[in-house]
Amino acid sequence: MGSSTLINADRLWTRLMALAEIGATPAGGVNRQALSDGEIAAWRRVIGWAREAGLTPSTDAAGNLFLTLAGRDGAASPVLLGSHLDSQPTGGKFDGAAGVMAALEAAVSLAEQSDRPARDVIVVAWMNEEGSRFAPGMMGSEAFTGERNMDAIRAARDADGISVGEALDRLHQPFPDVPHRPLGFAAGAYLELHIEQGPLLEAADCAIGVVTGIQGKKTFQVVVEGAEGHAGTLAQQERRDALAAFARMASALHAEIGTVDADIKFTIGRVAVVPNAPSVVPSRVSFSIDLRHPDNAVLDAAGARIAALCQQNAAPCAVTVTPLVDAPSNAFDPRLRASIAEAAREQGHSAMEILSAAGHDARHLAKICPAAMIFIPCRDGASHVEHEWAEPDHVAAGASVLAQVLRELAFAPGIAV
Amino acid sequence: MGSSTLINADRLWTRLMALAEIGATPAGGVNRQALSDGEIAAWRRVIGWAREAGLTPSTDAAGNLFLTLAGRDGAASPVLLGSHLDSQPTGGKFDGAAGVMAALEAAVSLAEQSDRPARDVIVVAWMNEEGSRFAPGMMGSEAFTGERNMDAIRAARDADGISVGEALDRLHQPFPDVPHRPLGFAAGAYLELHIEQGPLLEAADCAIGVVTGIQGKKTFQVVVEGAEGHAGTLAQQERRDALAAFARMASALHAEIGTVDADIKFTIGRVAVVPNAPSVVPSRVSFSIDLRHPDNAVLDAAGARIAALCQQNAAPCAVTVTPLVDAPSNAFDPRLRASIAEAAREQGHSAMEILSAAGHDARHLAKICPAAMIFIPCRDGASHVEHEWAEPDHVAAGASVLAQVLRELAFAPGIAV
């Protein structure tokens, strides 16, 4: 079974590039913030393509977009597949969009080439995966799976003070003919294609990544409180220098948490110093911690040491450590992983198992149904940058593997998997 | 000799508070940037008060303001005394202004109460001591003493791109009747009154600080260059994490330079992280170092270790250490210090010797003539803050001591000291 028979690779690439014109940046990237005019324009274009093929759009209270290819048995649990349409502020053409467009192409090709599937096939674009306009990210999939309630989601505000609630109402307003469905439904399976956002597939010259799972992640916000003072007059022994305490903490954290084993990822990425003037002893330093590991036991053990290491190095300052994200590792469904590997083999694409270091909406879907992901390579492993790039052949290969697994699920008798 | 006989304390306080209305902030402080409309307004007010008493204003190419009480012998080297009128953005009513107004009060009282002095008495307000609008500070006194040339000074620009040259021309424009004098002249002596900006006089319940000198200061700018990466995907052993390297450097610097002895002052006050996002391994950290010590040998030895400590902790990142300021400690003139102490004793004010931890224009004047400083207490040692405060009694005491030393110098035969 060759990839040319399952999807129209040229149409997919042409549409993906057309989508990238919405929110295009001068440097060749994409800035398409969640619930922005750009996302509304993307909805309009994607809905148009879906309707041409007979797919029916719908949405929900969380601003997720669904495009349904109706199956013969409306009572059977549907196959769900997709990704997201929002981007980072200086993002690229592929992160998110490639997964939605590959899913749409797989569904459209299925509609064109096959009998009506046994069950509904639903392409989805989740709301605010990136979290760059409204924090935290993955709001759409969290609302869908019941991880987060809509009151909390609607209350989050962007830098201009606009709430998600206001922005959601504004998103829905220009689509009066797109019906609303209840939040969440029983899905039979979930599939997501995404660029790897790392260098492993490219380094291995491999077209398809069979994603084994998503590594666990914990994040923390740490605030060190000292006292301001004149750099020339305040005696060293009387200082409560928040920067000096931060330096000790960060040094100890990097040395002790950052060296747990070869799989640990420990990052202090954001630091804010107050008042941040050369001749003033800093009164306050706040910083972020991002900790990831594929083994939940290791992740938990490392995470549990963070507050103590901060406390041990704080004196004479005070420190508070606030956990923000606690997302354990998950393993994707073994049968779906096997189907992806088998489809790649049949189509003649090199494939390898790969762990996702970054988070994806599939993490949440995996809690309510069998789920899996397909990775394709991206140049230099670069993502969240304007020069982010995936080769057309890799996009086509990934979409074709997705299409093959979709067909197995869509025509399977009974529950999809 | 009581202080009430040498100056008019009420007039001094009233004028100092009137001056504080120019650039007053809602929180009770002062924002009067160098060469701003506020400084022009302050010039207008101060020149008016000086002319009432028969003092003659003049200026120079560096925007220093001189108010001359003419002496009998125009060829004798004048006594120079003053401070500065510019402030920090959230500064107070006293830093700089108290010294100019005390000098003006001493000169005006001298004009009112005495015969014509033997030599010229010149009150000065130096241009841009603070360095908050245009960096570096002390431009006026550095230009006057030949430390820095006017081309370099005129080229410096503020955050809006306005050059010192443009701002100087704008300062001089509304004062066509204030003549220009050549830059620099032979001064017989220089006196400067200032709030302490530290807690020592207040803690000792002492009205007058006889300043022994200004401690030496070195500053550095350090840049750590690493490589950006995804916090979830980039393996720890492949990272060139600029923040991790900075943490090691800052920790080592605080531990080894910050503990040299009880007199060392070591501060990392400003840190900039690039790109400063929670999920991105930092590619670049730049930070400031402020190092001070009264003993030049200790200061030099500590300063010489900084680059090595940075280098030792940089790998696998690169680091560059750029020296910015190298101002050795100075000792003020022993005879002037003795005169200040004696005046305080005669007037019944408690006095103590004190080292200035902060820099002042007197540092530069001390290179060309005998110079000394008088400190007065400030509440809680707080300065460069809007609640900066000096008690009226302390302002009067300091000005009266200044006035007494001024009279000794102004009527001394031959060279002033």
From TrEMBL, chains A, B:
Binds 2 Zn(2+) ions per subunit. Zn(2+) 1 binds at residues 84, 95, 194. Its cofactor is Zn(2+). Gene3D superfamilies: 3.30.70.360, Zn peptidases (3.40.630.10). Pfam families: M20_dimer, Peptidase_M20. GO terms for molecular function: hydrolase activity, acting on carbon-nitrogen (but not peptide) bonds, in linear amidines; metal ion binding. SUPFAM superfamilies: Bacterial exopeptidase dimerisation domain (SSF55031), Zn-dependent exopeptidases (SSF53187). Keywords: Hydrolase, Metal-binding, Zinc. Zn(2+) 2 binds at residues 95, 130, 384. Transmembrane segments: none annotated. CDD domains: M20_bAS. Residues 213-314 form the Peptidase M20 dimerisation domain. Belongs to the peptidase M20 family. This is Allantoate amidohydrolase.
